[in-house]
Specification:
The structure is a homotetramer. The radius of gyration of chain A is 23 Å and the shape is globular. Chain A folds into two domains: 2-244, Aminohydrolase, N-terminal nucleophile (Ntn) domain (Glutamine Phosphoribosylpyrophosphate, subunit 1, domain 1, 4-Layer Sandwich); 265-444, Rossmann fold (3-Layer(aba) Sandwich). By secondary structure, the first copy, chain A, is α+β, with helices and mostly antiparallel strands. Residues 464-472 of chain A have low confidence and may be disordered. Helices cover 32% and strands 26% of the residues of chain A. In chain A, a hairpin with a 2-residue loop joins strand 15 (259-260) and strand 16 (263-264). In chain A, the strands form seven sheets. In chain A, strands 3-2-4-1-10-9-11 form a seven-stranded antiparallel sheet. Chain A has a six-stranded antiparallel sheet with strand order 5-6-7-8-12-13, covered by helices on one side. A four-stranded parallel sheet of chain A has the order 17-20-21-22, sandwiched between helices. In chain A, helix 4 (114-123) packs across helix 5, helix 5 (133-148) packs across helix 6 and helix 9 (265-279) runs antiparallel to helix 16. Chains in contact: A-B, A-C, B-D, C-D.
């Protein structure tokens, strides 16, 4: 998972306004990636300026860095930690120079045919400096640009070749471009600023910059921004029969205040709770949530069930991600430091705990244990999604099947593992209803094992197949 | 406002277990002070070891610092920023050596007669290295110890002299001591650990260390810990007719998961919301809170009023206290970055917003404005406390009268200032009912201007007067 | 200017021994580049590991970084700051993956035909991520490797194409390779370690690792290291009629304790001083030097002239490169802090000051002024090289002609500018004699404006022309 | 060992000029203490401002710290690391407030009767926050000030009580004061700045600030500065029959460019080398030094003996004090990194190595071994001082007798231990001649075991005894 952003601002302005806007935009998207971040800006007639580093947005970019990044157009990227590739070479945006100009790419998603595409390019004698699919996208785009000389034609060809998820912000010779894959798997939207345009993974980045949300980038669309005062030029290159919006964005990934493909995520999560209360009622004294991911659904559950909502687990707001856990025997204390139980709130009570999903089950078990240790009589877990049984090949660092508890175990087995008195997962139908789309417009690969694009060795539906029949 | 902690652990153990326990205890009390922190540990037959610094707990103490702090008994302190005194000399604990031994002091509270006491000591030729009342307490205690040779007698004399609020943890020649002033103004409680004892400002520090909450230290009590396996020795030196527990701890200061003088703060805050709904009902579509301080009261308001509770203001969890706001024109963006409105949640709706208190009114006004900017039809502010009209002389860095909006303006004037459609403060009677004590057991100085001890130029009740008649 | 190093060590050993050896080797070469540094290591059957960053060696590599860099073979690089290119993308070693494997390159030197080579590669559709000639070398080498499949053949072709200075250490599929250009412009030598082999820009890196200096890499030679116990395989690919060793390495660049092409640099510098005393004698009371660059020559001057050598300018050893000069009016103090005059040593005396070279003249003038301010009666500047009149195109960041004072002004004009009573430059003949080679084996471009390779718009001799006639 | 400085500057000026001047002054004195540093400034009618910390001057004081330190008068301190007391509480200057005002003290030296003085003060009920004799001095001075109300009288009494070495700069109620003990053991001098006055441990701090050296503070003198334009008021409180200037300042401690009690240290060190050549001639090919401490003496030795001086040991100027030596087996490499031998300079040669002193002998042995490993035929060590046989009680952190090799072993035994072919120490007579005073004006305790003040269990002369008979 990653977050991307791009701005195209009016000149003249303070020369580092674009850099600051990207900085704040990335800060608003920090939840989509905490491993590294980067900003590239450009200005007419001048080369691009870049700053990137490992860590969180505010630690990477000092005010002096931002002041150095002069330009009126730019893109930015935050990256999630995925094993083995944590090195500065893999940080984005990725910048390259080629015969006719320069290109900077920020990418959210994952290519399913990365290995074949890279092997093909290597076969042509090309060399690579990173292990990211972003570099492959950059090489292919340059290749097509050198053939077609036209960005729209080059991107159309690119879309034909790439299989997978890709929302992109690009700087193509100093101009901002936004692209979303034909199935619209990862989100991407645009907004109007007082002094220009912004594209971002989630609408929250637009809100933060004081902008007005305009619309989502359409599946298969390319948007080319030509200065602050001109409407961006759009081309809908592919039009799939259906879409494949990632359902996990609604369950967990996106911020609750984001508007994704027309829906406020918070509303979806409240509805999830309401439907969960209908599907899996329980006799209880209190409904509670695992902070912060389950709050909206717990409120929805409480509303529908009539059982009062209370906070029972208090997060220490001062404990950051850089927290030190130095000694094995102190680990348990570190957990308590992060999340403390409001003892009297649960003592001798029957508690319904609502959370968004279960991955390995160990975190949930620790929570159930904590509640029981403080005297909870019964703990009923209610999960706002069906069991996650399959990995994601389209950009979410889901665990492998072996690590996904629901992939190996029945619901009853999971219930016993997590020490809960009862366990209820929301049905796929319920979840789809809560999102408010039909299932065929969503990617539910992690829940069903059926993917919207061909993944070697996995089941997939024909959605992507139809794509090639579309005329642009 | 400050937070204090102390531990007395069993030997032999890992030599830095006490330091780690104090570190985690202070981390749990971080909300009580973010300006500086310090830890002192000691071990039989060896001098004390100290580490302190400016900033937040995890930035001050590196693992290597903690490993250096070998000992089985110790105290710690976090300090709140108060103007003008932000220097390393004022960091606590305060350590001194004297003829018969050594003393370390961590103090939460404020002495009203600090200036007179210090002048008296200076008149005897004594010198001071800081501007804290803690140093005055240390000097006076040493003076009494040299006279009485007995700690209990010395502290009894100390209590006779000191006027104001003081919860203390001390190391007296390597032994942990906990003291609470005769009116019990600031909180202090003790707990049992698997391997010893802990004293702390709030029970959350005990929870974090995996300990069992035992009880509050009683007003006027001294507790002397003599090793991990022996019960602490207690002496009740003064017994006031009433107490003067700070009511603002319940309103805002303490963590919601703390148990203060027998009450879970969260429960009090839910009750505040319930009573607020009774005192100040409003026709509305949604009840919401200012995160995180108003959540519990908003839930209580929703429960009692039947109007659904929803989150409408989303905090960016990644924005820390060290946030950079470099350019004036970017300030507004920085505010939006911290707190984003869930637009669709408030558009065309009548919104009740619950918060704990109003100090200057500027923050509340910005929130009302944000909600209206996103389409809220009406905004009704409900405040979980009466107007704050007077400064605090007993340890809370309240603003001066001039800065307290309610001190200068009527409720209607405040309502207009904050742009709200209506404004309702909880009555003092309601607040006291919510806390569940009688008013005479509480200090309500900031709300009433009447204090429980003599403050020159202010009204005060006779509570402290009676004190001198008590026999220990 | 840059410094490079490479090691090939025996297995099994501590897994991070190679990284530590490279770290210490780079530390010994720190004078050749303080802007950035990087280390790449590799181990059979595993990919390469890299760490690089901006700044000085000890600040870039923390012990934890080095421990992570497991492998028994590796290369390292320190880079000098050159305007405009100070960004992490330009840090070396440069690593790329290609069809048949991977390549890491560390480069010291400069390609004169960089722009043409890069344009040619871009014309083939290739893309670039940096603005360094190192990336061009890497692309060309991969291209030749894919054609010839044999490293020696590929490098022979590379040498035919590249025009300029290049000493290289490479990792080619996990094996250490060292290459020096056919004119031997930049230094490169090899040494034997107890547990393997080392190649480095200067012998001081070998000394530091406790190794035995073996010999310089020959102009036009490739050395391939195949494990710690086998002699490296050598191939002399080109044999120029003459060489073009950089004369400025002897004057200033190399450390005095380095052995370059068979000569101890310190000895050369003492001889420079001796010949300077013969060419430019002066009546004086004391001979002194600008620390640290002129010490050896001043001692040589003193020996030959019989005038006693004394230190008169004392460097503050604690003033580092990161020194803060915050206020304009404090600049003068900052200069005095760095270099203090031993007043009584110069008062009423006639002083001969020996330095290695004059670039802009401003530093020398400040020194002359300081000595006169403390009472020196006469100051006679003696410079251990002829006037620097021309830029360097072969790897030294000399100033442009406009900034080189001797390029625009006569010796008498320079003397007046620097406020000296007399000024004597060593003749080219004297300098060449001091080095102990014939002039045709040296590059004297910066002193004569005649270069050993074709530089557009500049005079050059035919040395490189002959190259193409040699058979490998 | 420590370094102290004080300034009294004219108003109005930039408000942080005093802080910057103290910063640069301390930077110039960094060689006298690298453990911690502190600065205190004051301005009429305002309290003092302080900043201090552990480490080196440039790392402790950021530009923002200095800007915060507004005032026109101030003092500063650098502190040397002595075992066990490395904590922020012991950093100087030490500030206290008392009945009639405030006092800040920076101290260089050591009190021999510290323990008795502190016990006496503790007996009066006083408390201490540090383990430094500086705090004792501060308490005693306040005590006398409260009695005498007059600074001169108070200091006269202080001088009667204190036994040992003390050069002091003080801020007494916002005025700069400089004091030197009656024997003048540690140095202290004053200078004129364009905008005020400066007092400092060594004249190099005056040079750095662009000031004019005026004179040393006289033994037993107090100087009171009253603004920038008035001459400081002086009082000579005690006049010892002789002085006891520390001879080790000339041998090693002071910077070579310092003027101590009228003598340029560099000149003394050259003379040391000349006399050493007379006392201990040797047949040799080259004279060399251990950088940087032995350079001046080696040059003197070369001059007198006619044997050429050459550098043979090259220091890596980039290796700082914070150097990491992570692995035992890499230690040897770390040593080589710091100091490399110029092999050809010593191969097959007879080498005379001049150094200032021998403490434990291990460093010298490593140097002799290094030279022999690179082929030196003979190594003759010449030491610019007599054997150090006794500890220092007056402010230098000399080792204990057990660690001083010359305390336990004959010269021949030391020679064998250090692997030298011959070893010659300068005689005490020679050293005294080189300094140019009579022996009775110098403290030679570390060389003779006879001290100028009473040290329990050690021999001492009557110098201090006479003191009490002097009338002020």
């Amino acid at each position: 998972m990653c977050g991307i952003v791009g701005v195209s601002l009016r000149e003249p302005l303070e020369p580092h306004r674009a850099a600051y806007s990207l900085y704040y935009g990335l800060y608003a998207l920090q939840h989509r990636g905490q491993e590294s971040a980067g900003i590239v800006v450009s200005r007419d007639g001048e080369g691009s300026r870049i700053s990137k580093g490992m860590g969180m947005v505010p630690h990477i970019f000092a005010p002096d860095d931002l002041k150095r990044l002069q330009g009126n157009v730019g893109i930015g990227h935050v990256r999630y930690s995925t094993t083995g590739s944590s090195r500065i070479e893999n940080c984005q945006p990725f910048i390259i120079d080629y015969k006719d100009g320069s290109l900077a790419v920020a990418h959210n998603g994952n290519l399913v045919n990365y290995a074949q595409l890279r092997a093909g390019l290597e076969g042509e004698g090309r060399v690579f400096t990173s292990t990211t699919d972003t570099e492959v996208i950059a090489h292919l785009l340059v290749k097509e640009l050198l053939i077609h000389k036209d960005l729209v034609e080059a991107v159309r060809e690119l879309m034909r070749i790439l299989v997978g998820a890709y929302s992109l912000t690009l700087l193509v010779n100093g101009r901002l471009v936004a692209i979303r894959d034909p199935l619209g798997i990862r989100p991407l939207c645009i907004g109007r600023l007082e002094n220009g345009w912004v594209a971002a993974s989630e609408s929250v980045a637009i809100d933060t910059l004081g902008g007005r949300f305009l619309r989502d980038v359409k599946p298969g669309e390319i948007l080319m921004f030509n200065g602050a005062d001109e409407e961006p030029r759009s081309a809908r290159l592919y039009r799939a029969a259906t879409t494949a919006h990632c359902i996990f964005e609604y369950i967990y990934l996106a911020r609750p205040d984001a508007i994704l493909d027309g829906r406020l995520v918070y509303d979806t999560r409240v509805r999830i709770g309401e439907l969960l209360a209908e599907e899996h009622p329980a006799e209880a004294d209190v409904v509670t949530s695992v902070p912060d991911s389950g709050v909206a659904s717990a409120i929805g559950y409480s509303d529908r069930s009539g059982i009062p909502y209370r906070e029972t687990l208090m997060k220490n707001r001062y404990v950051g991600r850089t927290f030190i856990m130095p000694e094995a025997e102190m680990r348990d204390i570190a957990v308590k430091l992060k999340l403390n139980v409001l003892g009297p709130q649960v003592k001798d009570k029957r508690v319904i705990v609502v959370d968004d999903s279960i991955v390995r089950g160990t975190t949930v078990r620790r929570i159930v244990d904590s509640l029981k240790a403080r005297g909870a009589r019964e703990v009923h877990m209610r999960i706002g999604s069906p069991p996650i049984t399959s990995p994601c090949y389209l950009g979410v660092d889901m665990k492998s099947k072996g690590e996904l508890i629901a992939s190996q175990h029945s619901v009853e087995e999971v219930r016993r593992f997590i020490h809960a008195d009862s366990l209820g997962y929301l049905s796929l139908g319920g979840l789809v209803r809560a999102v408010g789309m039909t299932e065929k417009h969503l990617c539910t690969g992690c829940l069903t094992g059926v993917y919207p694009v061909e993944v070697p060795g996995e089941k997939w539906t024909a959605r992507q197949m139809k794509l090639s029949h579309f005329t642009p």
